[in-house]
Structure formats: C-alpha cells, structure tokens
Amino acid sequence: MASHGGIFYFSALIILAATVASVSSSSLSPYYYDSVCPEALPTIKRLVEAAVYKEQRMGASLLRLHFHDCFVNGCDASILLDPSPTIDSEKNARPNLNSARGFEVIDQIKQAVDEVCGCSVVSCADVLAVVARDSVVALGGPTWNVELGRRDSTTASRAKADSDIPSPFMDLPALINNFKNQGLDERDLVALSGGHTIGFAQCFVFRNRIYNETNIDPEFAQQRRLTCPSIGGNSTLSPLDPTPAQFDTAYFTNLIQKRGLLHSDQQLFNGGSTDGLVNTYSSNAKAFSADFARSMIKMGNIKPLTGDEGQIRSNCRKVN
Ligand code: HEM
Ligand SMILES: *[C@@H]1O[C@H](CO)[C@@H](O)[C@H](O)[C@H]1NC(C)=O
Ligand SMILES: *[C@@H]1O[C@H](CO)[C@@H](O)[C@H](O)[C@H]1NC(C)=O
What we know:
Blueprint: H1 2-23, H2 40-54, H3 57-70, H4 103-117, H5 124-138, H6 158-164, H7 172-180, H8 186-193, E1 200-202, H9 203-212, H10 218-225, E2 237-239, H11 250-256, H12 263-267, H13 275-283, H14 285-300
Helix pairs in contact: 2-4, 2-5, 3-5, 8-14, 9-10, 11-13, 13-14
InterPro entries: Haem_peroxidase, Haem_peroxidase_sf, Peroxidase_pln, Peroxidases_AS, Peroxidases_heam-ligand_BS, Secretory_peroxidase
Domain Plant heme peroxidase family profile: 27-320
EC number: 1.11.1.7
C-alpha cells in the first residue's frame, strides 16, 4: 500500500512540474525590471494617468495598440515601426491606417523611462503592455501583474496586420477561429472584446450595421444614423458603448439589448455559443474583471521575443 501511494505521489509531482513548465513557457516575469530599473513602472503609470486625464479616449487608443501589436507576430512592438526602405509599416495596414493612434504618447513614455532608468533597458513591447494595463486602470477597470521581459522586433509585416487582426465584419465562427489562431479561446474572445467598453469607432466601420442589419434595436440604429449618414461622414465617431470613458460592464448589457455598435460586437450575443458568457459578464462585474485580466496576460504572452532575440529599441519607431 505504501509503495502504491509513493508511486502515485511521484507521478503526480511529474505531472505538476510539467504543467507548471508549460504554463510559464514564456519566461516573462512581472519582476523583470525590479532590480535593473525600479522606477520604470511607476513612471509609466504616472504618464499614462496624465495622458488619459488630458484626453480620456487616449486610454482606449493605447489599450488597442497592445492588442494590434500582439496579434501580428506576437507582442514585439512591430506596430510601432514607421515606414522605411526596409519596413513595410503595419501603421499602413487596413485595421490601423487613420485609426490606430497614441504613437506620440508611447514615444514620450519610452523617452521618459529611458531617462529615469539611465539607459535603454525597457523594451517598446513591454511599454505597450504596461501602458495597456495602466490605461484600463485609469478608466476604472481591473488591474493585473503585467508579465515583462519582451524584446522588440527588427521587422514588421503590413500583410500579416491585414490578415491577422480581426475585422469588424466577421461572423462569430470567423472571430472564434481568428482568436484560436492566436492560442486564445472563446472565453478570451468574449472577455477581451469587453475592451470595447471604452473608446470609439468611425462611421464607415458600422454603417452597414445601422442601415442594413436586423439584429439591432431600431431606436439605437436611428440614433446612430443621426451622426453617421448613409453616404459621407466616414470618420465621424460614435462611442462603442454608452460609457466610453468608463471601464464597466455596459458593453455587455448593451449587447443583450441589441445595441452593439459593430457587427462583430453583436455577433457575441446573437443566439450562438457565446451568449452565456455575455449574460454572465453583463451581470457580474467581478467575473468580467477577473477574466479580462487573465485574458490580457494570456494575450500579452503571444510569441514574445526573449533572450537574445530581437533588440531593445531606443526609438520605438525605428530599428536600432
Ligand atoms: C474581437 C475582435 C475585434 C474587432 C473586430 C475589433 C474591431 C475594432 C474596430 C473596427 C474599432 C474602431 C476603429 C476605428 O473606427 O477607427 C475598434 C476600436 C477599439 N478596439 Fe477593437 N476589435 C476587436 C477586439 C478588440 C480587443 C481584443 C481589444 C482590447 C482588448 C480592443 C480594443 C479596442 C478599443 C479600446 C477601441 C477604441 C479605440 C479608440 O477609441 O481609439 N478591440 N475595434
Ligand atoms: C445595404 O446593403 C446593400 C446590399 O448589400 C448595399 O448595397 C448598401 O450599400 C448597404 N447600405 C449601407 C448604408 O451600407
Ligand atoms: C467611405 O467609406 C466607404 C466604405 O469603406 C468607401 O467606399 C468610400 O470610398 C469612403 N469615402 C471617402 C470619401 O473616403
């Protein structure tokens, strides 16, 4: 009997060790800069708070930058590289052109961090990850420990940005598949789509929804048409949910009322497999907060460059 127990215990240990190894395979750590530059994270937090105080929408724009970075060859700051003879900038890809914003804020933060650290030790990819967290917190959302130690790419891919960032015209199966390709499941899809509890979208991305779709509250459609004409006004903004400067659960409550702004938003509550999660998050802020934080860490772990891969850029817009 004793030997049986021993063998069982030994196997359980091996399984446990293997599980821990696979979970922490990224080799990132929340403590990465603690000894080399303890002032890095407080500096970022202070500057994000200032930027969001100056313009509340900036918090949303900065959160989105980290997402658009991570979905294209991993979280490697590839989105920050400007066009050059060797860089086909992701800034010119369809989902980013005249849409992604906040690049000057990132420049300013990176410069301040390098100054307080005395040299360029914090990667642009880590700046994006910390800035995303601090933006959510600045708008009243949950906090989490950001995993750190990513390095920056020396390349960018406009083509991959076009193909890998999800489109607002996708149906639920395509959205699920898009996230699955990044190692993210349906729970991550619904929780992370909750990022649309803050920020705005331009008329041309939701025009077809408010004029042509039927799974929409007619009063809401009418309201949105007032500032989004059927022709023209392409870049006029509408809030993604009724409280675009508050990180709350209104995005989900809104979906249940068929008031999702983007086609892709309403797909999460349209009689499919994700309806249950939308219901849960709409009535349980704690569950949404916990899942959003967990999924942000998971998204932040997508294919990071570590060790001697890539570099620490001194200017986030250019390869060293
Ligand atoms: C699920 C698939 C997603 C699609 C199809 C999608 C699509 C879009 C679109 C079309 C816009 C409006 C852009 C514009 O009009 O210029 C937008 C805005 C935004 N997205 Fe997403 N998104 C998705 C997921 C996410 C995720 C995972 C996050 C973050 C966790 C996120 C955060 C944001 C934020 C904060 C904004 C507002 C940005 C601002 O006001 O500057 N989105 N998204
Ligand atoms: C509505 O759908 C029709 C048919 O697909 C399309 O031609 C038209 O441009 C759409 N209207 C708007 C305002 O998007
Ligand atoms: C407005 O957006 C539509 C749909 O994306 C596009 O076909 C059209 O060329 C845009 N108009 C202008 C003036 O940019």
